[in-house]
């Protein structure tokens, strides 16, 4: 008989892998260094995204005419309206940031996936959400989907030059934003898991996330089934993603 708690039972859902053409229908600046871009199109019929850390491939053509693929989290999917929202960081020097800076209504791109969803139950005694800017869209979506009464501790690494993130705040959400990786690790070491059973979700740069994994599993002895850590990117590599826990 399995000893995994109900809060830690991740439901895995698989989807047919389909490439879809999408068209920019709306562009918003969030005020915290991101562009929130809405896409629509007939090809989005049947699209699914049931988890806040789902990933799709965003496929576009750069200024040199080269095809570029990048991983993105669907920030919002409105099946009724057929609108998919992605958030693009604008302060990077990469091809995707350039594309988003120059995006205009009517521009087209392709998306692929997601291949599936790993649905982490929202009913937890507490939630730990930790990450850098690459994880911010997923964290923002998770908070938007949690019950108002949920206990959520958020540890966020953001460049000092950027404004604080924008997200509705609830009474039981504790947010700490730091500007250096060492400060993020220090904040995590100071964090104490609240009473009860919860889930720790963390994502960001690969080397940093390996240290985060060690702190959570070894120093804090959280149950492995209650922790998910992913490398959303790695220094010197493009289009990188790796699950660490």
TrEMBL record:
<dbReference type="InterPro" id="IPR017938">
    <property type="entry name" value="Riboflavin_synthase-like_b-brl"/>
</dbReference>
<dbReference type="Pfam" id="PF04954">
    <property type="entry name" value="SIP"/>
</dbReference>
<dbReference type="InterPro" id="IPR039261">
    <property type="entry name" value="FNR_nucleotide-bd"/>
</dbReference>
<feature type="domain" description="FAD-binding FR-type">
    <location>
        <begin position="17"/>
        <end position="121"/>
    </location>
</feature>
<dbReference type="InterPro" id="IPR017927">
    <property type="entry name" value="FAD-bd_FR_type"/>
</dbReference>
<dbReference type="Pfam" id="PF08021">
    <property type="entry name" value="FAD_binding_9"/>
</dbReference>
<dbReference type="InterPro" id="IPR039374">
    <property type="entry name" value="SIP_fam"/>
</dbReference>
<dbReference type="GO" id="GO:0016491">
    <property type="term" value="F:oxidoreductase activity"/>
</dbReference>
<comment type="similarity">
    <text>Belongs to the SIP oxidoreductase family.</text>
</comment>
<dbReference type="InterPro" id="IPR007037">
    <property type="entry name" value="SIP_rossman_dom"/>
</dbReference>
<dbReference type="InterPro" id="IPR013113">
    <property type="entry name" value="SIP_FAD-bd"/>
</dbReference>
<protein>
    <submittedName>
        <fullName>Siderophore-interacting protein</fullName>
    </submittedName>
</protein>
């Amino acid at each position: 008989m399995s000893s995994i708690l109900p809060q830690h039972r991740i439901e895995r859902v698989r989807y047919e892998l389909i490439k879809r053409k999408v068209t920019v229908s709306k562009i918003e600046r969030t005020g915290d260094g991101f562009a929130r871009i809405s896409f629509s199109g007939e090809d989005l019929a049947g699209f699914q995204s049931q988890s806040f850390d789902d990933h799709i491939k965003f496929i576009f053509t750069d200024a040199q005419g080269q095809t570029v693929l990048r991983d993105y989290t669907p920030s919002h999917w409105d099946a009724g309206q057929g609108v998919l929202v992605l958030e693009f960081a604008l302060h990077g020097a990469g091809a995707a940031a350039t594309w988003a800076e120059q995006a205009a209504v009517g521009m087209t791109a392709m998306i692929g996936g997601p291949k599936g969803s790993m649905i982490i139950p929202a009913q937890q005694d507490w939630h730990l959400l930790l990450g850098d800017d690459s994880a911010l869209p997923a964290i923002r979506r998770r908070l938007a989907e949690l019950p108002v009464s949920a206990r959520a501790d958020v540890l966020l690494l953001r460049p000092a030059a950027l404004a604080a993130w924008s997200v509705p705040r609830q009474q039981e959400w504790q947010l700490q934003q730091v500007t250096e990786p060492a400060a993020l690790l220090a904040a995590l070491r100071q964090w104490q898991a609240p009473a009860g059973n919860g889930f720790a979700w963390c994502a960001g740069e690969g080397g940093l996330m390996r240290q985060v994994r060690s702190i959570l599993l070894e120093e804090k002895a959280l149950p492995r089934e209650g922790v998910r850590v992913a490398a959303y990117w790695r220094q010197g590599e493009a289009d990188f993603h790796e699950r660490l826990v």
